[in-house]
């Protein structure tokens, strides 16, 4: 096993996290990525830019998000104490908006009046449409035709916010196809267009840039946990699809000794069933969407279709930094099934009066497994990355209810 | 000397341009791929670019993506593509075959195994769309050691420095992408290509093929005025798509003949 360097300093100048990450794109995109890289370097070293980012997070998003001690849930489990980082209370209802504001500000710095995005369930699309409205930018969101049908409410939300939603009919007509189509738009309209990628994947500098914008989550926790509990947590737990909420809460904790970092993947109908979305625990390394990372693929290197009850985790790859944290043993990766996530969803509703997103319910489900095995003075910090309003339809359907 | 170099030398000696058509292996059916390759040669192709289908062809437009999807539905894989090249080599030992595709199927096979298998099958070069020079130094070295050419793309936006980098790591020829966007895109700016070509050709010191956006004999001729080679992909895929299965081979040959005739009207070296 390789070990992560201390202090942790990844990626390298070309975007590599050990063997992962990098810039695996056609030549036509290289100049655009070089331009973005230079612009992002300038922005993150510019105090005025960072001050504006922080101002927007405070006054528009409502940060810092609180940490909540889920006492009834902890008592019911009878073990470690569960604390929730309340990203569900952000404007637009999830962590996604942190990154969208950051990238929209970079787009504005670069003088690009048009932003595009890919979306699966529609959360990143809604967050992008929101910030595009906020900054007066033209917005086009690519969404798989299947997802457009399944997520009508989010499609309408994006339209209300002034975005154009383009249904993608190619391939499996889901998230990965929307991503392919957004890349095609970008390569064609590079002169006026900024591509806001929603997760810590894609070619460098995206995995690093998205991580940096999401790291506000973990930075706040570093301050809030000692205030609330007198110390840092024993474990930080987050769900992993592409991995942006997990990377955001993990990254500031990488150099904090004694804190276990646990990423929870979607096992769907079970890892053995083959119908899951667990790239790290069920996949192998390969190259997709501009980076080298763990992928769900066939023996001859074709990307295979994934399954999860949570559309936000339904992606065949994962951010390259997670691949590196896995190989270097700094983070652990596990999974829970659709059924386990649903049970955790209902438990949080009943015990704490919080309706979590199905994505976040995966992290809650693993915390519920882990807590009873640990003494009551141990602390689990769970990233409650989003709220579940968007999932009413899916959960109701599972219970045999039609609206 | 490699088959690719031999082809360009003899074309240059006679003042002709290389015609490089593209088809996707396994489209519309695996059993038609080798007959289509022979038809391309009979119609006047000098080099064949053979697409290796991939589930997520990010740099391609809808036409080539559809070809990829059809090929995958037909059970095509990198291993089977190499078997088709072997079949083609049974009766053609002169026409270079360049595989064009994406990194993941190659990495899934393993670079060393791929290089050995491709060399044995009679492949002459590989263009891996999502392997820019900085990410594939080892791959390019292995390919060259196996007697094959690593072919790279250059774009209208490529800087002087990148042109030099590509020239160092690449061999065989350079594929110049004539417009921004993906394969099969619309408007091709001839003046733009003509203005850029002398700098690119001089910068790389090897033949330059131009592709993306060339749709007929006339656009091929105009590009041929300024380039060493003309690459046509999406337009041929459309010909295959729009033909009844039993006529696809004949219609592709006919289309390629038209382009060949137009290219052969060009007099002298590229301007």
TrEMBL record, chain A:
Record-linked InterPro entries: Trp_synth_b_CS, Trp_synth_beta, Trp_synth_beta/beta-like, TrpB-like_PALP, TrpB-like_PALP_sf
Keyword line: Amino-acid biosynthesis, Aromatic amino acid biosynthesis, Lyase, Pyridoxal phosphate, Tryptophan biosynthesis
Documented EC number(s): 4.2.1.20
Keyword check for Lyase: yes
Substrates-to-products reaction catalysed: (1S,2R)-1-C-(indol-3-yl)glycerol 3-phosphate + L-serine = D-glyceraldehyde 3-phosphate + L-tryptophan + H2O
EC category name: lyase
Residues where N6-(pyridoxal phosphate)lysine is found: 96
Pathway the protein acts in: Amino-acid biosynthesis; L-tryptophan biosynthesis; L-tryptophan from chorismate: step 5/5
Domain Tryptophan synthase beta chain-like PALP: 62-384
Annotated SUPFAM superfamilies: Tryptophan synthase beta subunit-like PLP-dependent enzymes
Single GO MF annotation: tryptophan synthase activity
Cofactor(s) the record lists: pyridoxal 5'-phosphate
Nucleus among keywords: no
Stated family: Belongs to the TrpB family.
NCBIfam families according to UniProt: trpB (TIGR00263)
HAMAP family according to UniProt: Trp_synth_beta
Function noted in UniProt: The beta subunit is responsible for the synthesis of L-tryptophan from indole and L-serine.
The protein's assembly and partners: Tetramer of two alpha and two beta chains.
Protein name per UniProt: Tryptophan synthase beta chain
Organism: Aromatoleum toluolicum
Gene that this sequence comes from: trpB
Automatic annotation (TrEMBL), chain B:
Highest taxon of the lineage: Bacteria
Swiss-Prot/TrEMBL catalytic activity: (1S,2R)-1-C-(indol-3-yl)glycerol 3-phosphate + L-serine = D-glyceraldehyde 3-phosphate + L-tryptophan + H2O
Pathway: Amino-acid biosynthesis; L-tryptophan biosynthesis; L-tryptophan from chorismate: step 5/5
Annotated active site: 49 (proton acceptor), 60 (proton acceptor)
Keywords: Amino-acid biosynthesis, Aromatic amino acid biosynthesis, Lyase, Tryptophan biosynthesis
Enzymatic class: lyase
GO molecular function: tryptophan synthase activity
InterPro entries xref list: Aldolase_TIM (IPR013785), RibuloseP-bd_barrel (IPR011060), Trp_synthase_alpha_AS (IPR018204), Trp_synthase_suA (IPR002028)
EC numbers for this chain: 4.2.1.20
One Pfam family cited in the UniProt record for this chain: Trp_syntA
CDD domains: Tryptophan_synthase_alpha
Tagged with keyword Transferase: no
Family: Belongs to the TrpA family.
Described purpose of this protein according to its UniProt entry: The alpha subunit is responsible for the aldol cleavage of indoleglycerol phosphate to indole and glyceraldehyde 3-phosphate.
Annotated NCBIfam families: trpA (TIGR00262)
Assembly behavior: Tetramer of two alpha and two beta chains.
Entry protein name: Tryptophan synthase alpha chain
Organism in which the protein naturally occurs: Aromatoleum toluolicum
Source organism phylogeny: Bacteria, Pseudomonadati, Pseudomonadota, Betaproteobacteria, Rhodocyclales
């Amino acid at each position: 096993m390789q070990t992560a360097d201390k202090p942790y300093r990844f990626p390298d100048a070309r975007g590599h996290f050990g063997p992962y990450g990098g810039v695996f794109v056609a030549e036509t995109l290289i100049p655009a990525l070089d331009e973005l890289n230079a612009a992002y370097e300038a922005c993150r070293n510019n105090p005025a830019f960072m001050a504006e980012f922080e101002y927007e997070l405070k006054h528009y998003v409502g940060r810092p998000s609180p940490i909540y001690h889920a006492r009834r849930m902890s008592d019911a489990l009878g073990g470690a104490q569960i604390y929730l980082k309340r990203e569900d209370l952000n404007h637009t209802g999830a962590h996604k908006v942190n990154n969208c504001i950051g990238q929209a500000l970079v787009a504005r710095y670069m003088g690009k009046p048009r932003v595009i995005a890919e979306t699966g369930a529609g959360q990143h699309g809604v967050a992008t449409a929101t910030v595009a409205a906020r900054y007066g930018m033209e917005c086009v969101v690519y969404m798989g035709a299947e997802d457009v049908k399944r997520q009508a409410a989010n499609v309408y939300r994006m339209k209300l916010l002034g975005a154009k939603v383009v249904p993608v009919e190619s391939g499996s007509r889901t998230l990965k196809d929307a991503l392919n189509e957004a890349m095609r738009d970008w390569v064609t309209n590079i002169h006026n267009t900024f591509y806001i990628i929603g997760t810590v994947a894609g070619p460098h500098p995206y995995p690093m840039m998205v991580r940096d914008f999401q790291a506000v989550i973990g930075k706040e926790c570093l301050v809030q946990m000692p205030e609330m509990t007198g110390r840092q947590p024993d474990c930080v737990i987050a769900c992993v699809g592409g991995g942006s909420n997990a990377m955001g809460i993990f990254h500031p904790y990488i150099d904090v000794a004694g804190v276990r970092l646990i990423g929870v993947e979607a096992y769907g109908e079970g890892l053995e069933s083959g119908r899951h979305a667990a790239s790290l625990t069920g996949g192998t390394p390969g190259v997709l969407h501009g980076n080298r990372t763990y992928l769900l693929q066939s023996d001859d290197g074709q990307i295979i279709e994934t399954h999860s009850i949570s559309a936000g985790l339904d992606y065949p790859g994962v951010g390259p930094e997670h691949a590196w944290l896995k190989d270097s043993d700094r983070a652990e990766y596990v999974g829970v099934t659709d059924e386990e996530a649903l049970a955790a969803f209902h438990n949080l509703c009943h015990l704490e009066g919080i309706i979590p997103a199905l994505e976040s319910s995966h992290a809650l489900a693993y915390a519920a497994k882990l807590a009873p095995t640990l003494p009551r003075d141990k602390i689990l910090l769970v990233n409650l990355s989003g709220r579940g309003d968007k999932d009413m339809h899916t959960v109701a359907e599972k219970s045999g209810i039609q609206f | 000397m490699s088959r690719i170099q031999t082809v360009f030398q003899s074309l240059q000696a006679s003042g002709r341009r290389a015609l490089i058509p593209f088809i996707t292996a396994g489209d519309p059916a695996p059993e038609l791929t080798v007959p289509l390759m022979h038809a391309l040669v009979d119609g006047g192709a000098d080099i064949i670019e053979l697409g290796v289908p991939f589930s997520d062809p990010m740099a391609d437009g809808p036409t080539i993506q559809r070809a990829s999807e059809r090929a995958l539905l037909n059970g095509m894989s990198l291993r089977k593509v190499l078997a088709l090249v072997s079949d083609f080599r049974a009766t053609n030992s002169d026409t270079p075959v360049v595989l064009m595709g994406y990194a993941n199927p190659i990495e899934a096979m393993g670079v060393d195994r791929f290089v050995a298998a491709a060399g044995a099958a009679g492949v002459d070069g590989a263009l891996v769309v999502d392997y820019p020079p900085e990410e594939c130094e080892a791959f390019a070295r292995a390919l060259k050691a196996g007697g094959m050419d690593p072919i790279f793309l250059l774009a209208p936006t490529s800087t002087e420095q990148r042109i030099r980098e590509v020239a160092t790591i690449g061999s065989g020829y350079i594929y110049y992408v004539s417009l921004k966007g993906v394969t099969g895109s619309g408007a091709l700016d001839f003046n733009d290509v003509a203005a850029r070509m002398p700098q690119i050709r001089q910068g790389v010191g090897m033949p330059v093929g131009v592709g993306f956006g060339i749709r007929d004999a006339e656009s091929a001729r105009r590009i041929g005025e300024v380039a060493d080679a003309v690459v046509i992909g999406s337009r041929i895929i459309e010909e295959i798509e729009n033909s009844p299965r039993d006529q696809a081979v004949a219609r592709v040959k006919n289309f390629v003949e038209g382009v060949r005739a137009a290219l052969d009207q060009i007099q002298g070296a590229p301007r």
